[in-house]
Write a structure and sequence with these properties.
The chain is α+β, with helices and mostly antiparallel strands. The chain has helices at about 40-45, 60-65, 65-80, and strands at about 5, 15, 15-20, 30.
Length: about 90
Amino acid sequence: MIAAGTSKATGRPFNIAVAFEANGGQGRAIAQNTFHHFADYNWDTRFGAPSFVDEPPGNAMMREPAALADVHRYVRNVALWLGGKDP
């Protein structure tokens, strides 16, 4: 584990996703405390929830296809940026 936080709402601890580009200490990095946005379940709740999810599923992505397109664009941009390419 590199980093963790604590929810101000529930007091529960959570991990923070961190990625570094190895380049002699000069590489790119990103820290994302909402790593769950990268999970398939958040993109399409029809896949079912992971065992640690105890909240009822939402339907925002199904109601708003543009929101899902925005998430896909964000993930693509992060991957390209970490890979040293312009998004």
